[in-house]
Amino acid sequence: MLREKTVFGPIFSRRLGSSLGINLLPEEGKLCNFDCIYCECGWNRDGRNDTQLPTAEKVRTDLEAKLKELQQNSTPVDSITFSGDGEPTLNPEFAQIIDDTLRLRDTYYPAAKVSVLSNATRAHLPQVMAVLKKVDNPIMKIDAPTNELAAKINQPAPGYDVNRVVEALMQFEGNFVLQICFLRSPDFDSSMPEVVDGLIDIVRRLRPREVMAYTIDRPTPAQNLQKITAAEMEKLLQPIITEGFKVQIKG
Question: Is 2 a member of any domain?
Fold first, then answer.
């Protein structure tokens, strides 16, 4: 299980380059409204001993100290990335934290992007969408085109609905990144035509500025999961590549 401090890295990200991470969830626990079978942070039940969320003040203090240190050492930062041990928008001070981060980014690393990795479950809330629109890279996850498949891959909290998420993401008017994880298990296969066709339909409807397609890269809590290769993903997504969509594939 991966557990992150409030500010961690920078680490090399397959998708974002030199990425300085911000974890808005507990440092020793996990808090998420998904329980993805491939999550490198483990199952939700494995992280219940710590439920303390970092405050906006702590994030601001820790981030500024880290940015000063990195600047003094001439360490490159391509992205300040909200990821960590769960869904970042669940932190009640998310809006204030984003405003503070944008200000600190402009002060210390003005060329860096601010990125938010989110499962998009709260994008339908006006206060959340307003904040997500402020960042450079709102990276929203949809791994399955149906609620039935999402239940197998993401194991969301009650009330999740793919159609509601798609409707919410329409508010970006294409100015966001759509993230899709492709994988296989004994119960499903993301490369099946009905799955790929459904995901492609969602891409065509949302018209994101970029699609990030990737597969599992680290140990997973569920057993018997298999990668889908970069070559396979490229073939699966060829229709939208041909149509001119920007597609980043990481195997």
Answer: no
Domain with 175, as residue range(s), is 7-250
> pLDDT tens digit string along 185-239?
999 999 999 999 999 999 999 999 999 999 998 899 999 999 999 999 999 999 9
Where does the chain have alpha helices with state H? Answer: 56-72, 94-108, 126-132, 147-153, 162-169, 193-206, 230-236, 238-242
Count of domains forming the chain: 1
Global confidence as pTM: 0.94
Written as six digits, the tokens of 69 are 């240190």
DSSP 29-89: S-B-S---TT-TT--GGGG-S--PPPPHHHHHHHHHHHHHHHHHTT---SEEEEESSB-GG
List the CATH number of the domain containing 231: 3.20.20.70
